[in-house]
Backbone:
């Protein structure tokens, strides 16, 4: 099931340069996938977000990405995913990410053709950075993160580390539980 598809420029694609790199984001965490998607759009990627690996096969028939960020699930291995993925799109540069990192998994991913292996929790920007190194995007104006964005990302990081338990996250952040709930009920700061 496809979530979002967005181009840098007009919706009809008329303002999209033919050289805009294509990025496929495969992540079961919808909010995190959308955050990566927003950062990708800021960095002039034509971006497509997919919920899971089951949806990738039909997507690759119509969308040929230059880059991919793939979240490795619990019952999956990097080698198997990359073998299937790179068979369809051999020129694609892939970054693997997972909530269950291991040295063996990292070695497996790199040997199978991944450009990088990034354990979660991580920031959306850190997933895009391996792709920016090889592109000539000097004309892109990099905007520093605002304090409220840094605070929001830190709260999300601690919440994920606490298995989405608000009480434990509030204790780690030295906040009252209800204060943290109020912060979380607000929308994420505009990026």
Residues:
């Amino acid at each position: 099931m496809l979530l979002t598809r967005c181009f840098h420029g007009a919706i009809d694609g008329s303002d999209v340069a033919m050289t805009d790199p294509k990025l496929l984001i495969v992540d079961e965490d919808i909010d995190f996938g959308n955050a990566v998607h927003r950062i990708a759009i800021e960095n002039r990627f034509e971006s497509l977000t997919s919920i899971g690996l089951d949806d990738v096969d039909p997507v690759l028939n119509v969308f040929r990405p230059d880059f991919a960020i793939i979240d490795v699930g619990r019952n999956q291995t990097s080698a198997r995913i990359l073998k299937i993925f790179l068979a369809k799109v051999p020129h694609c540069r892939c970054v693997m990410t997972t909530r269950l990192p291991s040295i063996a998994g990292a070695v497996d991913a790199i040997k199978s053709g991944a450009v990088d292996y990034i354990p979660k929790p991580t920031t959306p920007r850190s997933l895009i950075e391996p792709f920016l190194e090889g592109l000539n995007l000097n004309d892109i104006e990099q905007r520093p993160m605002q304090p409220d964005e840094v605070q929001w990302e830190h709260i999300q990081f601690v919440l994920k580390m606490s298995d989405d338990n608000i009480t434990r996250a509030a204790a780690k952040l030295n906040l009252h539980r209800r204060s943290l709930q109020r912060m979380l009920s607000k929308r994420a700061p505009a990026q």
About this structure: Residues 1-18, 136-141 have pLDDT under 50 and may be disordered.
